[in-house]
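User: structure tokens for this one?
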Amino acid sequence: MKISRIAQVGAVAAIAALALAGCASNETASGDAPTASEGPALTGTLNGSGATSQQVAVQAWTAEFQTANADVTVNYDPQGSGTGRESFQSGAVEFAGSDRAFKTEELEAGPFDACAEGSDIVEIPAYVSPIAIAFNVEGVDALNLDPATIAGIFAGTITNWNDPAIAATNDGVTLPDLAITPVHRSDKSGTTANFTDYLAQTAGDVWTYDSVEEWPIQGGEAAQGTSGVVNAVKGGNGTIGYADHSQTADLTTVSVQVGSEWVEPSAEGAAIALDASPLEEGRASTDLAFAIDRTTEESGAYPVMLVSYLIGCVDYEDADAAALVKGFFTTAVSEAGQQTAADNAGSAPISTELAEKAQAAIDQIS
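Assistant:
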């Protein structure tokens, strides 16, 4: 594909703080996973923008990266996946974070002004996390919901918490006669894209709007960003929403039906779902985009999950920018980088095999 020349890099708001709240650690990838490079220390400023879901992970990777490169500043503006991709395409930032990969038609259409002319892009699945379906219903502290019921709630066809469809999978739970308030993202969101992809794949006869980044229907409550959805669910009685699990620690979450099991959101479950999914075909070797199989019945899999990508160029016109992106991406997929993200953001470390594929793609950045 043909890509235009790099545009002027715009200023992006710096990370306000790197104080990271500890979350429960998860299994690390074993074996000889790639580690951050030990070359000469880098200097300069690296600007990125994108997904709110991986903000805490980016902060963790920044701290790790700056330990080895004290004279580097990493700015990441968490304005959402759509804004991140648009900023990267316009050349306003050197890298993007996105909860979905670029579609093949988007790659063909371009332009990608962050990259040198003729360059392919790099898309690295660096952050794997469950999307929790969180609710706030007074007196209810656990719910099992099958895909069709979840789809009905968010499509607006199931409107009360004592609906027979909800009662059918929750024997012994006293469900109130209370209106359901579904909360969705108001902004263009990769989390929305992944959540609606789950609905479309598992309950397409109920959710008829396909996989979309912008909420397609009227009704419910709209909220900006992950934190907005979380706060809206917390602030009401009868609310239910979807958000990256790392930010729903104070909320009650749904167990979803996978085969004959009821599965809670977990990093381990997200990792099982990813391992059951193939890479998309027809892409450049540096473009590691997954086709997530939301219909898997693999034991323990939690298919309401997202893979958030770090996106950069294979070729930059600015050699210093290339070195910074290459170093930061290497830190992110290294064993240490994946573990610090798991510790602080509750994400699932990518497998050794995937880390090696990611590093091979990163090695082509120049």
